[in-house]
Amino acid sequence: MTSLQKTSRANFIRQRRTSKTRTVQSPQRKVQTVPKTYHSTSVYLPVQPKPVARRTVRGTFGVSAQGNAFSRAAKKPHRNGYDIAFTLGRADVRAPALNLPQLGTRWVSAALTLVLGFMLYSMWTASPFKVRAAELRGNQRLSMAEINSTLGMIDQPIFKAVPDQMEADLRTAYPDLESVNVHVGFPNRITVDLKERTPVIVWYQNGYVTLIDSSGVAFPLRGEVPGLIQVTANGAPTAILPDPALSIHDQKFIAPEMVQALTVLASDVPAGMPMIFDPQYGMGWQDPRGWTVYFGQNTKDIPMKKVVYQAILDTIIPQGVQPTLISVEYLNAPFYK
């Protein structure tokens, strides 16, 4: 082999070796040939190989070592979550997608409604919040059973108690109550402060019995009340116009002045005899000697009318006159018959 042939063969081998690292240009595309490398973890080499230069592309949530394709995948979000890409040494790791639920205000409101509803239901049905019985203070004739029956709160949750409504119910059911105050306390306490009316007169009319206090308010008889002035009426007294300043429970049956007049006359009524009331002649009593005396409905001058009545008796009794009716309603025109 000649020296020329050796030189040509050497050049051919050199060109063949260097062709592996050159980039071959073509009209259609560019092709890049990367020399083959070896990793120290898989192949034992007597010397430490040099690190191979690698292109890295930073993605949205990490660093990619696989070029643009991986970078585009890292940037593209999944629905309700994102793929997180990051590098760990020479190994590329791609974590699974994290699904983040998106809860709107309606879901939050619904959850709060359910929680509050459960709490209210638990408190509504829990035994510590159920009323055992109301505590009474100031009652004399009314019993605890009557008050609790009207309130209707036994074994009911305390949340149903409305003090204003309970006071109105008690005043309507028991007109003999002058005032009512209801206090509600947790967990299950109801306290009722009562003030009962003090009766002065027992009024008998058309088979009905009514009590009247010093202000002229009438209310039903409840139990036995001794020491009251008994009045038998042949008819109703003069109607009293309703007072708009008073509640329906405080309207007058008779004038307070008449109550005072009956109280004054009661001391002159013969023992064991009731007082009487007549719509025409007014108030008076039945004398056991056989006549009826009337002092009218005018409550003025009662002491003077008593003096005139006694003067009439002192005049007719010595004469042997037996009257059936004596009226001193009008001081300037008394009469008897």
CATH topology of the domain at 199-336: Rossmann fold
State mean pLDDT (0 to 100 scale).
77
Helix tally equals 7
Global shape: rod-shaped
Counting helices, strands and paired strands, the structural category is alpha+beta
- CATH architecture descriptor name of the domain at 199-336: 3-Layer(aba) Sandwich
* Major beta-sheet overview: 9 strands, mixed
- Strand content range: 15-25%
Series of secondary-structure elements, N-terminal to C-terminal = HEEEEHEEEEHEHHEEEEEEHEEEHEE
Which regions contain 5 or more consecutive residues with pLDDT less than 50?
Answer: 23-32, 37-45, 56-75
Number of strands: 20
Helical residues, percent: 25-40%
Essential attributes:
Rossmann fold; alpha+beta; nine-stranded mixed sheet; three-stranded mixed sheet; 337 residues; 7 helices; 20 strands; Ubiquitin-like (UB roll)
